[in-house]
Specification:
homodimer, alpha/beta, DNA/pantothenate metabolism flavoprotein C-terminal domain-containing protein (chains A, B), phosphopantothenate--cysteine ligase activity (chains A, B)
């Protein structure tokens, strides 16, 4: 692999990927959504990616490597983008946190409801507000074509769908944004070198060799959607190396900002690293319901406004 | 590791595991549940395990290896055991399929409900039966103390909780059952040899060495709960080796039956492998709502009845 150029690595990744299911269906939904929002109202469109990707270890997949991500950041950011007037393509890992559902209990069908009669469910008073928000706000956003939800599971699905979305958003130009909060695997087992059947256990330790996933961010910036405003994320568990890594990513991928998170404090504060300096964004600790995404999206939307103005001048 | 005995490997696994959180709380619930069902009514108690286990690759876990399992088998079996009069300890992977919720859509809050006013939700007519079943049957089973749900995520949590449950059920003797449908990882990274921080990417391929998880099934049978009726599962993607592997597991772990599944046909049929021969169990293909678990649990319950009779004679 080391002798291949970056473009070649990317082509080779896509060529060896199992093809996306229901691609026609996804494209149709996507194009309708973009058409409705950009041509009609000239609305800004953001693609929010959310949750972790899986890396299958077997073609008939029983085992896989996964990246931890609840999807809370992506879901909360999506709500804030909708509130700020954006249309959101929410590209999310199946089963992760959904917009407007963050404050529901883990087991909502057991904990939220009681039955009155055959068709009417009474919501327990302690959960009325959370359930109301989950059902009403989400349905409203989808009904107004302000929210398009597209699920993925594997790294293969994620990257193919990201390419589809980026290509479809190309003509929206500076009014489009990529907000790449998903935790994308850095390593994978190339499909062609993967074992077909379940790996056998029973004879000592197992050695796995994982190849690096080619970095798609450069291609997104240079080829797929070069005029889109682009925000990437960097998560580390070691605070000492976080800002340095985020700064390197900013230079390498030429994104407009990198949101730096440390695993243990990520719900309290993040650092927005950009060419105009580093800004610490905190949640309003005097308001219990405040989340860091309220202030983060405000800052990102301001930056996007400036970017759009500068692009048109 | 190869010079260690089986018991030593098991002790070493538990000693190096991160301790279970809320253990006191789990034990209290568990003992109350067992007391209520065994002493009071002399009810049979089954521990159904369900879903896959994760294997962290880092102590401050960002990446992990996971086993595919929707939890559908465990959830459907739990419903059938409750129907057959059993009390069920449902030891399930967080986020997997729940009993009575199998026929809900993926995104129930978006697809099932519409609002009438601030507290009343109208269920769309297409989902009335599914939602009614999800809410009513589940709440009834929990309210009657017939269903105790205990979630896990990692292999460390799963095995520690299984040990707790088995030890707590020891006195229930032949009236207790283990129905081990969870997809437990065969390999893991020992906690002590694990990197603390996120594995760095950026410099070529990644090599991972995984150790074998010690087989707990023998210890469950010989030490934790030797009188319990015990059913284990074997999943393969290659039909050619499935029955052979299931037969070997039957002999090695001295369980009362092994349910053999092939990944692609597991919703249509399974083979129950036991010392009295192999029985193919199919769903009733002339009834669209029939599932293989309806017939499987009927067979298992019959076998358990015979086992209890023989134990008392």
């Amino acid at each position: 692999m080391s002798s291949m150029g970056e473009d070649e690595e990317v082509s080779s990744f896509f060529e060896s990927s199992p093809p996306l299911k229901k691609m026609e269906d996804i494209l149709q939904k996507l194009n309708g959504f973009i058409e409705h929002n950009s041509s009609g109202g000239g609305r800004r469109i953001v693609c929010v990616t959310s949750g972790g990707t899986t890396v299958p270890l077997e073609q008939r997949c029983v085992r896989y490597i996964d990246n931890f991500s609840s999807g809370n950041r992506g879901a909360a950011s999506t709500e804030n983008f909708v509130k700020a007037g954006y249309a959101v393509v929410f590209l999310y890992r199946s089963g992760t946190c959904q917009p407007y559902c963050r404050s529901l209990p883990d087991d909502p069908f057991l904990d939220c409801f009681q039955f009155l009669d055959n068709t009417n469910i009474q919501v327990h008073s302690s959960h009325v507000e959370a359930v109301k928000m989950a059902v009403m706000d989400q349905q409203a956003a989808v009904a107004e074509a302000r929210l398009l939800k597209l699920p993925f599971t594997t790294i293969y699905e994620y990257l193919q769908m990201l390419r589809l979305i980026a290509t479809a958003l190309k003509d929206v130009g500076p009014c489009s944004m990529f907000y790449l909060a998903a935790a994308v695997s850095d390593f994978y087992v190339p499909w062609n070198s993967m074992t077909e059947h379940k790996i056998e256990s029973g004879s000592g330790p197992l050695d796995i060799r994982l190849a690096q996933v080619p970095k798609m961010l450069s291609i997104l910036r240079t080829t797929w959607a070069p005029k889109a405003f682009c925000i990437s994320f960097k998560l580390e568990t070691d605070a000492k190396i976080l800002i340095d890594k985020a700064t390197k990513a900013l230079g390498k991928y030429k994104v407009h900002a990198v949101v730096a998170n440390e695993l243990s404090t990520r719900k309290e504060e993040v650092v927005v690293v950009s060419s105009s300096g580093n800004v610490v964004v905190r949640r309003d600790s005097d308001k219990p319901e405040s989340i860091v995404e309220d202030n983060l999206i405000r800052l990102i939307v301001d930056r996007h406004s400036t970017y759009i103005k500068e692009s048109h001048s």
